[in-house]
Design brief:
alpha/beta, 3-stranded parallel sheet, 11 helices, 12% strand, globular
Length: 299
């Protein structure tokens, strides 16, 4: 089975709890993921809300250095995804969750791009120099600096991620974006009305721009931690033209999930559940791998 997952917090957990990425007791290790080939896992550097400015940047650099020391293959700058997968069937893709890492220095975007960062999630739940997250009391969207950062990210080849952003910020991105943007780990608000989920209008904007939406396995965003709930969100998105848009951004090691799901092993179970429901095999192939592969291969 092929798998491409858009978001996890495993890298942060590995760094802060000092356990190895290749084999551990968290949601993801690359030994447990040996059942998937090829397997591409976005490894996000989460920036805690209490870190800003140089402290956020220093923390991010230390976490990325940790990833580079681990015995896993990272998708490096200047190498195509195809070339990387020809030699290694399981690879990590660096990302940053929280634009606070930039402080107010746009040049850091270029540095992150050189280090192999493929997307930046503009905010977490609160506010930073770029704008306001979905739980911020401020109703304004992106700041002037945030809009400059979006333009710089597009020039640097770093994809804009709108998960966690408030709705005003989302529409600021949608109205100014010159390239496709993504929501790496967000679900359907019409199925489960949580501030972290996307409205149908928001989802339509991601579809229209050629972006991606990664389904999150967090029970609070699904409504309940069941495969039936996963199916309800998927079906809702598929009904709205999301066949080439919807993927998974499971949020492993960043969300509470049932112990019996066994972390990344659950993806095989979800595939089997959907396959037994007689969903088209090509649709499932795009969901679990193809949509992400096609998107990032074009970058």
């Amino acid at each position: 089975m092929r798998l491409f997952d858009l978001h996890c917090d495993t890298l942060y957990e590995s760094f802060t709890k000092k356990y190895p990425l290749p084999k551990n007791d968290g949601h993801i290790d690359f030994a447990r993921a040996a059942r998937y080939a090829p397997y591409v896992q976005a490894l996000a550097v989460w920036i805690p809300e209490d870190l800003r400015g140089n402290a956020a940047w220093d923390f991010c650099c230390r976490v990325m250095a940790h990833a580079e020391r681990e015995n896993i293959r990272l998708w490096r700058k200047g190498k195509s995804l195809d070339d990387c997968l020809k030699t290694h069937t399981r690879i990590g893709m660096l990302a940053v969750e929280g634009g606070a890492v930039l402080g107010e220095e746009l040049a850091r975007i270029d540095t992150l791009a050189v280090r192999g960062v493929r997307y930046i999630t503009l905010t977490w739940n609160g506010a930073n120099a770029l704008g306001n997250g979905c739980l911020s009391p401020c109703r304004e969207g992106l700041t002037a600096f945030g809009k400059e950062a979006v333009r710089r990210m597009e020039r640097a080849g770093v994809t804009v991620d709108v998960s966690h952003l408030n709705e005003a910020g989302f529409w600021d991105v949608a109205n100014m974006a010159q390239k496709p943007f993504i929501a790496t780990h967000s679900n359907a608000a019409a199925v489960c009305p949580h501030p972290r989920n996307l409205t149908d209008r928001q989802f339509a904007a991601v579809v229209e721009c050629g972006g991606l939406v990664g389904l999150n396995l967090c029970g609070d965003f699904l409504g309940t931690s069941t495969f039936e709930a996963v199916e309800r969100h998927l079906y809702h998105f598929w009904e709205r033209g999301g066949e080439n848009t919807v993927a998974f951004g499971a949020d492993f090691d960043g969300a509470v999930m049932p112990a019996e799901w066994d972390g990344v092993a659950v993806m095989e179970q979800i595939f089997d559940f959907l396959y037994r429901k007689n969903y088209d095999s090509d649709l499932l192939s795009r969901l679990f791998f193809g949509n992400c592969y096609n998107f990032f291969s074009r970058l």
